[in-house]
Specification:
There is one protein chain. By secondary structure, the chain is of the alpha+beta class. The chain has nine helices and twelve strands. Strands 3-4-2-1-12-11 form a six-stranded mixed β-sheet. A hairpin with a 3-residue loop joins strand 6 and strand 7. The chain is globular, with a radius of gyration of 17 Å. The two termini are 14 Å apart. The model has no long low-confidence stretch (mean pLDDT 94).
Length: 259
């Protein structure tokens, strides 16, 4: 099973840069797109339609303010939209596809980069989502959360970590939240399960120099429940495949989806 996760920063602009042509060459079983910024009816039209996939999205109340989508080759047993709290559901920040033994969620966190109010909103979302993740661990099934978290976890995940530690995306409270997810709650960072390679980043500041020199941060993840740890086999973040400020996170699993 191959899962591709990507924050598109608006699917219209990403499509114009060739996103869907590229996706048709990737043979992904599941595709998770964050920050689509379109309505559900719009996403069902060209150029966003992918032949051979079931397609679902959860749009934001104001479509330009978020939204997430899942494309899957295997028809899911159920689709769940929202997390049950206002900061998630108003902005279309979560959609989940349920299969036989595994659920795959597509998640978009606030960036926190637009001033104090934005950062406080991000912290509130983190707290609410931690409560949600704690409850999910009690369920007798596996989960994969494909998320644009707008947060780097380790120094390994940031090129110039000393310069970034007081900026949203690598602040101490954000990193402590990641420690809780991958420590106390026991979730697994799929990419770090298969590689400790450095310079694997998924976001770069909007400058040509930052991209050319790979001055980035890893802000995008696939997060697993512990039972899936041994099934993650290969991970890559192709830096030169650019359809937005973010790069795709591609993970291959020794797992076959079924209903």
């Amino acid at each position: 099973m191959r899962i591709i996760s990507l924050n598109v920063n608006g699917v219209e602009a990403a499509a114009a840069r060739g996103l869907f042509d590229w996706l048709r060459t990737q043979d992904a079983d599941v595709i998770c797109l964050q920050d689509i910024r379109v309505t559900a009816p719009e996403l069902e039209q060209d150029p966003y339609w992918l032949e051979g996939y079931w397609q679902y999205c959860f749009e934001a109340e104001v479509p330009s303010q978020g939204g997430v989508a899942i494309y899957t080759k295997t028809a899911p047993k159920a689709i769940i939209m929202g997390l049950g709290f206002e900061l998630a559901d108003r902005y279309g920040r979560y959609i989940q596809a349920d299969f036989d033994k595994v659920s795959i969620g597509c998640l978009l966190l606030p960036s926190g980069r637009d001033g104090d109010a934005s950062l406080n909103q991000k912290f509130k979302f983190m707290n609410d989502f931690t409560t949600y993740l704690t409850k999910q661990r009690r369920k007798r099934r596996e989960f994969i959360y494909c998320g644009s978290l707008h947060t780097a976890h380790l120094k390994l995940d940031v090129k110039n970590w000393r310069d970034c530690q007081h900026q949203p995306g690598f602040m101490a409270p954000e990193r402590a939240w990641m420690d809780e997810i991958f420590g106390t709650l026991g979730y697994v960072d799929a990419l770090r399960e298969v590689t400790r390679e450095s310079d694997l980043y998924s976001w770069w500041p909007d400058s040509e120099q930052a991209q050319d020199l790979n001055l980035g941060l890893r802000l995008d993840y696939q997060i697993l429940t512990p039972g899936l740890r041994r099934f993650a086999k290969h991970a890559t973040i192709p830096r030169k495949v650019r359809f937005s400020e973010h790069a795709p996170v591609i993970i291959d699993y020794d797992w076959v989806l079924s209903i």
